[in-house]
Amino acid sequence: CLATGRPQYNSEKVFEGYIGAGVDITEQKFLQQQKDNFIGIASHELKTPVTSIKAYTQVLERMFRKNGAMKEAGMINKMDGQLNRLTSLIGDLLDVTKINSGRLQFNDQEFDFNKLVSDLVEDLQRTTQDHVLVASYAAPQFVVADDERIGQVITNLITNAIKYSPGSKRIEITTKASENEVELSVRDYGIGIAKADLNKVFEQFYRVTGAMQHTFSGLGLGHYISAEIIKRAGGRIWVESVEGEGSTFSFAIPLKKVKS
Ligand code: ADP
Question: Would you say the CB of residue 221 lies under 6 angstroms from ligand 1?
């Protein structure tokens, strides 16, 4: 129950209690839970057919290529790209359901942080001709964390840098290492984020609105999921940005998570 109230005193100035209003939030909680359940079931149901369609498109693309039908193979390849987008949106919805119900799991293991970053940079460079990913690496550093989840954060930061800097080519990816943590920053020279929105970009379903932002589509979940992953890895995530000039998203995680 959410309550707001004013303390009441009798004529001897002795506290008697509060006068105010109470709002029952059981109903709100129930609705929130229903919404989470629905998102969970819907995204789970969407995942199966999408996975199956994806498998067929890959077979088709191979067949077309083998028969020299390059135009058709190209079209199927475009379909596959859109299916990847769909798979990633569904994945984000599933992750949010897991976060909200406390079921997001982590499999920690030791891995080479720079290698993870450089593999992803290489993969993502292949997806774009309009951008150049310029990476510089600190001395090698091994981290104990869930490499897939940390990779998900890195991918999210770089794909957002690409997405929100349509007019500029350069994206800088830098790793730093200190005695007890590693840091990654992704700098773009794109549309940037207004000061008032800076803290909100890590909130669930938050999307910046404004003249520059309205042409970009998305669910507003990527940064929320990233922030949750980094928090669970015992680290911190932050953003610096100037509207119209670009943004730098960074995170730091400890080499080994301190058990809490
Ligand atoms: P979305 O799916 O909308 O991209 P995110 O959670 O990844 O969701 O990002 C939240 C919002 O933060 C975005 O809608 C966008 O307005 C803003 N944003 C994220 N990354 C950048 C960036 N590199 N430059 C400018 N704005 C960004």
Answer: yes
Ligand 1: residue of 162, 208, 245, 249 to mutate (most ligand atoms within 8 A of CB) is: 208
Mutate to test the pocket of ligand 1, among 133, 153, 168, 193 (most ligand atoms within 8 A of CB): 193
Pair of tokens at residue 157: 């930061």
CA distance linking residue 216 with residue 210, whole number of Å:
11
Kindly report the number of other CB atoms within 10 A of residue 47's CB atom. 16
Going by CA atoms, what residue is nearest to atom 13 of ligand 1? 207
Q: 193 CB less than 6 Å from ligand 1?
A: yes
Which residues, other chains included, contact 94 with Cβ-Cβ below 8 Å and sequence gap of 6+?
40, 43, 44, 47
Closest CA to 219 of 232, 203, 230: 203
**Mean pLDDT, to the nearest integer, of 125-144?**
94
The model's pTM = 0.84
Compute the distance from residue 177 Cα to the ligand 1 centre, in Å.
Answer: 26
Instruction: Output the CA 254–ligand 1 centroid distance in Å.
Output: 25
Q: How far is CA 239 from CA 175, 193, 228, in A?
A: 15, 9, 15
* Predicted interface score ipTM higher than 0.85: yes
**C-beta atoms surrounding 165 within 10 Å:** 21
Q: What is the pLDDT of residues 91-106, one digit of tens each?
A: 999 999 999 889 999 9
- Residue (of 94, 249, 87) closest to 156 by Cα position: 249
- Burial call 200-234: b when 16+ CB within 10 Å, e when fewer: ebbeeeebbeeebeeeeeeeebbbbbbbbbbebbb
